[in-house]
Amino acid sequence: MGLPTEVFGDVIVIHTPEELGEDQSIAVQEFLLTRDKDCLIVDLDGTETIDSLGLTVLLETQSTLRERGGDLKITTSNHVNRKILEITRIDERLEVFDSVIDAVKSFV
């Protein structure tokens, strides 16, 4: 699976697919964990559907990256995605930003 990415120094921004569900989540996780940098930002703005497996993948990926000395952060200006992160309390475990620029700056 190939996903659109941007590189800002030691940080990679990955733009997730329209759906982050059962069919895509494992492929997305493999994509995230095979990047050559361990500081990742997952941009959920293009994602319209997130299920429980998608959320689990984000948390598991963050855990793996932290073991490597990196981290995973989320960006989304999509109010529905933000609400999902709040209701599931994922926003208490993952840092969530409104913009990619703010998330990139947080790694400095």
Can I get a quick summary?
With 108 residues, the protein is of the alpha/beta class.
Q: Beta fraction of the residues? A: 15-25%
Question: What is the strand tally?
Answer: 7
- Report the CATH superfamily: STAS domain
Structural class: alpha/beta
**Average pLDDT across residues?**
94
CATH topology: Transcription Regulator spoIIAA
- Summarize the biggest pleated sheet: 5 strands, mixed
Number of domains: 1
Q: Considering DSSP H and I runs of 4 or more, what fraction of the residues is helical?
A: 40-55%
* Shape field: globular
Task: Detail the topology: elements first, then pairings.
Blueprint (H helix, E strand, L loop, with lengths): L4 E4 L2 E5 L3 E2 L1 H12 L5 E5 L5 E2 L1 H16 L3 E5 L3 H9 L8 E2 L2 H7 L2
Parallel strand pairs: 2-4, 3-5, 4-6, 6-7
Antiparallel strand pairs: 1-2
Describe the overall structure.
With 108 residues, this protein is an alpha/beta fold. The protein contains 4 helices and 7 strands. The chain has one domain: STAS domain (Transcription Regulator spoIIAA). Helix content is 41%, strand content 23%. It has a 5-stranded mixed beta sheet with strand order 1-2-4-6-7. A two-stranded parallel ribbon has the order 3-5. The longest helix is centred in the middle third of the chain and has 16 residues, at 52-67. It is globular and about 30 Å long. The model has no long low-confidence stretch (mean pLDDT 94).
